Protein backbone atom coordinates (compact mmCIF):
# COMPACT_ATOMS: atom_id res chain seq x y z
CA UNK A 1 0.00 0.00 0.00
CA UNK A 2 1.39 3.39 -1.00
CA UNK A 3 1.46 6.04 1.71
CA UNK A 4 0.09 9.43 0.75
CA UNK A 5 0.18 12.85 2.37
CA UNK A 6 -3.14 14.05 3.80
CA UNK A 7 -3.17 17.60 5.19
CA UNK A 8 -6.77 17.18 6.41
CA UNK A 9 -5.71 14.21 8.55
CA UNK A 10 -2.95 16.31 10.11
CA UNK A 11 -5.42 19.15 10.79
CA UNK A 12 -7.89 16.64 12.29
CA UNK A 13 -5.22 15.31 14.64
CA UNK A 14 -4.23 18.87 15.64
CA UNK A 15 -7.90 19.66 16.30
CA UNK A 16 -7.99 16.56 18.50
CA UNK A 17 -5.20 18.08 20.60
CA UNK A 18 -7.22 21.32 20.87
CA UNK A 19 -10.34 19.39 21.92
CA UNK A 20 -8.39 17.53 24.63
CA UNK A 21 -7.01 20.89 25.81
CA UNK A 22 -10.53 22.38 25.97
CA UNK A 23 -11.67 19.39 28.00
CA UNK A 24 -8.75 19.84 30.42
CA UNK A 25 -9.52 23.56 30.79
CA UNK A 26 -13.18 22.77 31.41
CA UNK A 27 -12.30 20.62 34.39
CA UNK A 28 -10.29 23.43 36.05
CA UNK A 29 -11.98 25.08 38.98
CA UNK A 30 -12.54 28.79 38.40
CA UNK A 31 -14.71 29.74 41.36
CA UNK A 32 -17.78 29.47 39.14
CA UNK A 33 -19.90 26.32 38.94
CA UNK A 34 -19.50 24.24 35.78
CA UNK A 35 -20.82 20.72 35.13
CA UNK A 36 -17.43 19.87 33.57
CA UNK A 37 -15.87 20.32 36.99
CA UNK A 38 -17.02 16.82 37.99
CA UNK A 39 -15.93 15.09 34.75
CA UNK A 40 -12.74 13.54 36.20
CA UNK A 41 -14.62 11.99 39.15
CA UNK A 42 -15.04 8.21 38.99
CA UNK A 43 -17.78 6.59 41.10
CA UNK A 44 -17.45 3.01 42.36
CA UNK A 45 -20.78 1.76 40.98
CA UNK A 46 -21.93 -1.81 40.59
CA UNK A 47 -18.40 -3.12 41.10
CA UNK A 48 -16.69 -0.90 38.50
CA UNK A 49 -15.44 2.68 38.33
CA UNK A 50 -17.81 4.80 36.24
CA UNK A 51 -17.78 8.51 35.35
CA UNK A 52 -20.17 10.49 37.52
CA UNK A 53 -22.16 11.45 34.40
CA UNK A 54 -23.16 7.79 33.95
CA UNK A 55 -24.86 7.55 37.36
CA UNK A 56 -26.23 11.09 37.81
CA UNK A 57 -27.25 14.31 36.10
CA UNK A 58 -25.07 17.33 36.89
CA UNK A 59 -26.67 20.77 36.59
CA UNK A 60 -25.93 24.38 37.59
CA UNK A 61 -29.00 25.93 39.27
CA UNK A 62 -27.01 28.94 40.56
CA UNK A 63 -23.61 30.45 39.59
CA UNK A 64 -21.90 29.02 42.70
CA UNK A 65 -23.90 25.80 43.10
CA UNK A 66 -23.74 22.40 41.43
CA UNK A 67 -26.63 19.99 41.72
CA UNK A 68 -26.04 16.26 41.23
CA UNK A 69 -29.27 14.30 40.71
CA UNK A 70 -28.38 10.63 41.33
CA UNK A 71 -30.59 8.23 39.35
CA UNK A 72 -30.34 5.22 41.66
CA UNK A 73 -31.08 5.88 45.35
CA UNK A 74 -28.58 3.19 46.40
CA UNK A 75 -25.77 5.07 44.61
CA UNK A 76 -26.15 8.36 46.53
CA UNK A 77 -23.58 7.48 49.20
CA UNK A 78 -21.08 6.18 46.59
CA UNK A 79 -21.38 9.41 44.56
CA UNK A 80 -21.05 11.52 47.72
CA UNK A 81 -17.95 9.54 48.75
CA UNK A 82 -16.35 9.95 45.29
CA UNK A 83 -16.91 13.72 45.36
CA UNK A 84 -15.57 13.99 48.91
CA UNK A 85 -12.42 11.98 48.03
CA UNK A 86 -11.73 13.91 44.82
CA UNK A 87 -9.05 16.61 44.89
CA UNK A 88 -11.60 19.35 44.14
CA UNK A 89 -12.02 20.33 47.78
CA UNK A 90 -15.83 20.35 47.60
CA UNK A 91 -18.09 19.41 50.51
CA UNK A 92 -21.26 17.60 49.31
CA UNK A 93 -24.60 18.15 51.06
CA UNK A 94 -27.13 15.37 50.45
CA UNK A 95 -30.88 15.99 50.29
CA UNK A 96 -32.57 12.73 49.30
CA UNK A 97 -31.30 11.79 45.83
CA UNK A 98 -29.89 15.28 45.17
CA UNK A 99 -26.36 16.22 46.18
CA UNK A 100 -25.63 19.95 46.35
CA UNK A 101 -22.10 21.30 45.99
CA UNK A 102 -21.35 24.90 46.94
CA UNK A 103 -18.38 26.25 45.02
CA UNK A 104 -16.35 28.38 47.48
CA UNK A 105 -14.68 31.62 46.46
CA UNK A 106 -11.02 31.02 45.57
CA UNK A 107 -8.30 33.08 47.23
CA UNK A 108 -5.59 34.86 45.23
CA UNK A 109 -2.96 32.15 45.80
CA UNK A 110 -5.32 29.39 44.63
CA UNK A 111 -6.22 31.44 41.54
CA UNK A 112 -2.52 31.79 40.66
CA UNK A 113 -2.05 28.03 41.10
CA UNK A 114 -4.97 27.41 38.71
CA UNK A 115 -3.42 29.78 36.15
CA UNK A 116 -0.16 27.80 36.37
CA UNK A 117 -2.10 24.55 35.81
CA UNK A 118 -3.86 26.07 32.79
CA UNK A 119 -0.47 27.09 31.34
CA UNK A 120 0.80 23.53 31.91
CA UNK A 121 -2.21 22.18 29.99
CA UNK A 122 -1.53 24.72 27.22
CA UNK A 123 2.09 23.58 26.94
CA UNK A 124 0.96 19.94 26.71
CA UNK A 125 -1.44 20.91 23.89
CA UNK A 126 1.33 22.80 22.04
CA UNK A 127 3.61 19.77 22.39
CA UNK A 128 0.89 17.47 21.03
CA UNK A 129 0.40 19.79 18.03
CA UNK A 130 4.15 19.86 17.39
CA UNK A 131 4.24 16.05 17.50
CA UNK A 132 1.59 15.95 14.79
CA UNK A 133 3.65 18.47 12.77
CA UNK A 134 6.76 16.32 13.18
CA UNK A 135 4.86 13.21 12.04
CA UNK A 136 3.62 15.09 8.95
CA UNK A 137 7.07 16.41 8.09
CA UNK A 138 8.64 12.98 8.59
CA UNK A 139 6.06 11.50 6.22
CA UNK A 140 6.87 14.19 3.63
CA UNK A 141 10.61 13.44 3.89
CA UNK A 142 9.93 9.72 3.47
CA UNK A 143 7.69 10.30 0.44
CA UNK A 144 10.29 12.61 -1.11
CA UNK A 145 13.06 10.06 -0.44
CA UNK A 146 10.95 7.30 -2.03
CA UNK A 147 10.36 9.61 -5.04
CA UNK A 148 6.59 9.52 -4.44
CA UNK A 149 6.43 13.33 -4.49
CA UNK A 150 8.73 16.02 -5.89
CA UNK A 151 10.93 18.25 -3.79
CA UNK A 152 8.75 21.26 -4.67
CA UNK A 153 5.59 19.45 -3.55
CA UNK A 154 7.34 18.41 -0.36
CA UNK A 155 8.33 22.00 0.43
CA UNK A 156 4.82 23.27 -0.41
CA UNK A 157 3.18 20.66 1.84
CA UNK A 158 5.71 21.38 4.61
CA UNK A 159 4.72 25.07 4.47
CA UNK A 160 1.05 24.08 4.72
CA UNK A 161 1.80 21.87 7.73
CA UNK A 162 3.70 24.73 9.41
CA UNK A 163 0.85 27.15 8.65
CA UNK A 164 -1.67 24.74 10.23
CA UNK A 165 0.64 24.29 13.23
CA UNK A 166 0.90 28.07 13.72
CA UNK A 167 -2.90 28.40 13.45
CA UNK A 168 -3.59 25.72 16.08
CA UNK A 169 -0.88 27.00 18.46
CA UNK A 170 -2.44 30.48 18.19
CA UNK A 171 -5.82 28.95 19.07
CA UNK A 172 -4.24 27.37 22.19
CA UNK A 173 -2.88 30.80 23.17
CA UNK A 174 -6.30 32.42 22.72
CA UNK A 175 -7.97 29.74 24.85
CA UNK A 176 -5.41 29.92 27.68
CA UNK A 177 -5.60 33.74 27.83
CA UNK A 178 -9.41 33.56 28.04
CA UNK A 179 -9.22 30.91 30.77
CA UNK A 180 -6.68 32.98 32.71
CA UNK A 181 -9.06 35.99 32.63
CA UNK A 182 -11.91 33.74 33.80
CA UNK A 183 -9.83 32.33 36.67
CA UNK A 184 -8.51 35.71 37.84
CA UNK A 185 -11.96 37.39 37.63
CA UNK A 186 -13.25 37.95 41.15
From TrEMBL:
It holds the Pfam family RRF. The keyword Transcription does not apply. InterPro entries: Ribosome_recyc_fac (IPR002661), Ribosome_recyc_fac_dom (IPR023584), RRF_sf (IPR036191). It is found in: Cytoplasm. One of its GO terms (biological process) is cytoplasmic translational termination. It comes from the Bacteria. Coiled coil: none annotated. SUPFAM superfamilies: Ribosome recycling factor, RRF. Residues 21-184 form the Ribosome recycling factor domain. GO terms for cellular component: cytosol. GO terms for molecular function: ribosomal large subunit binding. Keywords: Cytoplasm, Protein biosynthesis. Responsible for the release of ribosomes from messenger RNA at the termination of protein biosynthesis. May increase the efficiency of translation by recycling ribosomes from one round of translation to another. HAMAP family: RRF. Belongs to the RRF family. PANTHER family: MITOCHONDRIAL RIBOSOME RECYCLING FACTOR PSEUDO 1, RIBOSOME RECYCLING FACTOR. This is Ribosome-recycling factor.
